[in-house]
Amino acid sequence: MFSTDKQMGYQCFVSFFDLRDPSQIDNNEPYMKIPCNDSKITSAVWGPLGECIIAGHESGELNQYSAKSGEVLVNVKEHSRQINDIQLSRDMTMFVTASKDNTAKLFDSTTLEHQKTFRTERPVNSAALSPNYDHVVLGGGQEAMDVTTTSTRIGKFEARFFHLAFEEEFGRVKGHFGPINSVAFHPDGKSYSSGGEDGYVRIHYFDPQYFEFEFEA
């Protein structure tokens, strides 16, 4: 599954390929294409059991599409600006979104019900859920076009850690000299990676204090 951009008169589509059918790959003919007439898709992931996809749009909307019929199963709009990233929890029951509206939000994967909100002062480009703890990491910063006009301190280029249940920030990690474009936890939860506008990918290993930390509400 992948989506195309909406530009130069071309419409945005979500295309589905069955990898068990080589002819679809050879002929570049997906078994289904879903047109997106209103707002282009900016991020998409497979939903639980591969029965649907969850797509975030430029408008801030979230849609759940059937992987069999292409029908819109659920539609919600909890963000006021573009959704930049969607990442699932390990068990795929929840997912977190990152948006240009300066927030990341937690949703139920089946109902798309909004659960939690994590607020910052700058656009959020990426967010990821820890596989082991009730933690979420956010990456972002000032818009790329404005990076050269500010210092790293003002740009707020740190990765920021929030408690999943209490929605409170409890830590920051510096290192990048521009906005963070992507973050991801290692599957074992002992480290995370971040990719930035500065061209670097950084792998951060948590120190022992991280695993001993207990959040006090």
Automatic annotation (TrEMBL):
**What GO biological process, any one, is recorded here?**
cytoplasmic translational initiation
Per the record, a Pfam family?
A: EIF3I
Is the keyword Protein biosynthesis in the record?
A: yes
> Which InterPro entries does the entry mention?
eIF3i (IPR027525), WD40/YVTN_repeat-like_dom_sf (IPR015943), WD40_repeat_dom_sf (IPR036322), WD40_rpt (IPR001680)
Q: Which GO terms describe its molecular function?
A: RNA binding; translation initiation factor activity
Q: Where are the WD repeats?
A: 76-117, 173-203
Q: Name one GO cellular component term.
A: eukaryotic translation initiation factor 3 complex, eIF3m
Superkingdom of the source? Eukaryota
Keyword terms of this UniProt record: Cytoplasm, Initiation factor, Protein biosynthesis, Repeat, WD repeat
Matches recorded under SUPFAM superfamilies: WD40 repeat-like
Cross-referenced PROSITE patterns, in alphabetical order?
Answer: WD_REPEATS_2, WD_REPEATS_REGION
Q: Which family does it belong to?
A: Belongs to the WD repeat STRAP family.
Q: What is this protein called?
A: Serine-threonine kinase receptor-associated protein
**Which organism is this protein's natural source?**
Molossus molossus
